[in-house]
């Protein structure tokens, strides 16, 4: 009976350690980003990255940065002689970053629904330069001299994982404040690693 009591006590002591090993402390991911600007009805796509760390049991604090590339738009008009349509580039590139909590709402077969509430910035850069890594670095380093607007970012999504590798889907309203409030649909999808 004593051996059973010791075994039971040892098992009870090791169970919290086993569950603590399954909880990751950091999460790093990359994502494809879609942003629909409501003011101009323009679709933007880009890439981004995010880093999160465990603050409490189901709450992570996350920081993310996304860069949306210049997009082509079409303008049409009716001309009885030619009926032409013009395609041109917008010259707009968008750099946006947010920071805030992400709350996991439980786990269902390795799938976590979550909600998030972040704040940050958005920067509209007007340029006809090529989309290269050097121009991205220039855009980030010019943030202090450029005009930036505040962002409020409520949203949610799903993330699923098998072991340390997973996939995450977010959908949110990226609200920025520049001469009023502007609501914009934002969707992102990409892989992540937990460690």
Structure, briefly:
Helices cover 15% and strands 58% of the residues. The protein is α+β, with helices and mostly antiparallel strands. It is elongated.
Structural class: alpha+beta
- How big a fraction of the residues is strand? over 45%
Arithmetic mean of pLDDT: 80
And the CATH topology? Porin
The best one-word shape is elongated
Instruction: Give the beta-strand count.
Output: 12
The secondary-structure element order is: HEEEEEEEHEEEEE
Strands ordered across the widest β-sheet: 1-2-3-6-7-8-9-12
CATH structural architecture: Beta Barrel
Q: Kindly, what is the distance between the CA atoms of the first and last residues, rounded to a whole number of angstroms?
A: 40 Å
* Structural Rg: 23 Å
Query: How many domains is the backbone divided into?
Result: 1
Ranges with pLDDT <50 over ≥5 residues? 1-22
Largest sheet entry: 8 strands, antiparallel, barrel
Count of discrete alpha- or pi-helical segments spanning 4 or more residues: 2
- What is the top-level CATH class? Mainly Beta
- State the share of residues found in helices, binned by percent: 10-25%
Structure description:
With 195 residues, this protein is α+β, with helices and mostly antiparallel strands. It has a single domain (25-194), classed as Beta Barrel (Porin), CATH 2.40.160.20. Helices cover 15% and strands 58% of the residues. The protein contains two helices and twelve strands. The protein has helices at residues 2-22, 133-141; strands at 26-37, 42-54, 59-68, 72-76, 85-89, 92-104, 111-126, 148-162, 165-173, 175-177, 181-182, 185-194. An eight-stranded antiparallel beta barrel has the order 1-2-3-6-7-8-9-12. The chain has a two-stranded antiparallel sheet with strand order 4-5.
């Amino acid at each position: 009976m004593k051996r059973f009591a010791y075994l039971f006590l040892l098992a009870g002591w090791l169970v919290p350690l086993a569950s603590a090993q399954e909880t990751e402390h950091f999460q790093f991911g990359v994502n494809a980003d879609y942003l629909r600007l409501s003011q101009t009805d323009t679709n933007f796509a880009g890439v981004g990255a995010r880093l999160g760390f465990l603050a409490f049991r189901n709450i992570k604090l996350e920081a993310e940065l996304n860069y949306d590339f210049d997009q082509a738009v079409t303008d049409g008009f009716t001309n009885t002689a030619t009926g032409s349509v013009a395609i041109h580039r917008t010259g707009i590139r968008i750099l946006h970053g947010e920071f805030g909590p992400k709350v996991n709402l439980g786990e269902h077969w390795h799938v976590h629904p979550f909600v998030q509430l972040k704040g940050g910035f958005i920067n509209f850069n007007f340029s006809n330069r090529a989309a290269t890594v050097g121009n991205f670095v220039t855009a980030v380093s010019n943030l202090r001299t450029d005009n930036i607007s505040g962002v409020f970012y409520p949203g949610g999504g799903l993330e699923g994982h098998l072991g340390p590798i997973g996939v995450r889907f977010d959908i949110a309203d990226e609200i920025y404040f520049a001469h009023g409030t502007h609501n914009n649909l934002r969707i992102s999808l990409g892989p992540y690693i937990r460690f």
